[in-house]
Amino acid sequence: MGVTNFDEYRDVFVVADTIDDVVHPVTYELIGQARRIAKELGQLVQVMLLGENVQSEAEELVAHGADIVHVFESPLLKYYTTDGYTKVLTDFFEDHKPNILLIGATNNGRDLAPRMSGRMKNGVVADCTILTVDTTEGLVEWTRPALGGNILAEIISPNHRPQMGSVRPNVFKKPDRIADSWGRIQIEPFDLNPEDIRMKRLDFIPFSKDGYNIQEADIIVAGGCGMGSKENFDKLYELADAIGGVVGATRPLVEKGWIELPYQVGQTGKTVSPKLYLAFGISGAIQHVSGISGADTIVAINNDPNAEIFQHANYGIVGDCMEVLNDMLAHLK
Ligand code: FAD
């Protein structure tokens, strides 16, 4: 949007991420951030919710702090499509001009954000991990890792509206439910026809064979190169099974083919926020630890007392990871 009058642009909007009419957790994390930013700017939190049958989900969004949830329902919106979602959202934003627009950096969000930004001619800051606000200028300061995670870039968008960014899942906490929430749900009319959508979903095949989502796990047992061999690494599944967790890994292990990409933790993998993260034989490279900053408790096992991972761990065990793993399994048995 070529913007001349910034005063027309108001409020913090969140685009809800859904898979088959179920709201993705990142949406709640974004509402928490939107609430904080909106409070600082004296504006409202508005959420865009698209799907086929999503009114009960809309109530949950209100219960977590949305002032207004705009609901767009149609069988054509049951599944995410670039064309359908971009059209509905950008048509709406012709009349309802957001000051700030937050999108989850999920698979769908990473597809949607640049497409919307192309239509709105506003630019998008992708994959942010910190959001602050300059209340004097009314500008969001978007922070994101850059240059292989070695620096943090701070980016502002002073000349265009909406100020738009995508935010990685699991970086921010989900806000608590509000007992006396005040928000409202608005069913929105919109114009979308089958011929507006050039793609058709034939099937949905989850990428991961085992089907667990590491981003939702409470306990992650993660291995790195220190595990030494695939055979050793596979023993981590025994521990994970025994304590109700799932297995994750560093990037080199994915590159070796010991585990699939959906289970890679870190900058080019998943950001995770488990209650417990066990790191076996992981050095603690910035590209890895940037993915675990949301973990409540990190326990690191490494035979190098100076390993960087100990700087990020709540508890450290200096020792051979297989010895420690076997001890743990023996105790559990
Ligand atoms: P290493 O760094 O080799 O560490 C192995 C550790 O095991 C060492 O600390 C060693 O002391 C310890 N060890 C060895 N033997 C034992 C033993 N017997 N018992 C106990 N400890 C032992 N990495 C990721 O993980 N995720 C990412 O998303 C990611 N993205 C990247 C993106 C870019 C652009 C780049 C450049 C790199 C990225 N990396 C990523 C790679 C990252 O920089 C590191 O190379 C990687 O995380 C290191 O993996 P590691 O800790 O398994 O191995």
TrEMBL record:
Record carries keyword Transport? yes
Q: Which domain of life is it from?
A: Bacteria
Signal peptide region:
none
Record keyword Cytoplasm present: no
> One Pfam match, by short name?
ETF_alpha
SMART domains hit by this protein? ETF
Sequence ranges assigned to domain Electron transfer flavoprotein alpha/beta-subunit N-terminal in this UniProt record: 12-201
Q: Which residues form a coiled coil?
A: none
Q: Which SUPFAM superfamilies match?
A: Adenine nucleotide alpha hydrolases-like, DHS-like NAD/FAD-binding domain
Q: Keywords for this entry?
A: Electron transport, FAD, Flavoprotein, Transport
Entry-linked InterPro entries: DHS-like_NAD/FAD-binding_dom, ETF_a/b_N, ETF_a/FixB, ETF_alpha_N, ETF_asu_C, ETF_asu_C_CS, Rossmann-like_a/b/a_fold
Which family, according to the similarity comment? Belongs to the ETF alpha-subunit/FixB family.
Q: What is this protein called?
A: Electron transfer flavoprotein subunit alpha/FixB family protein
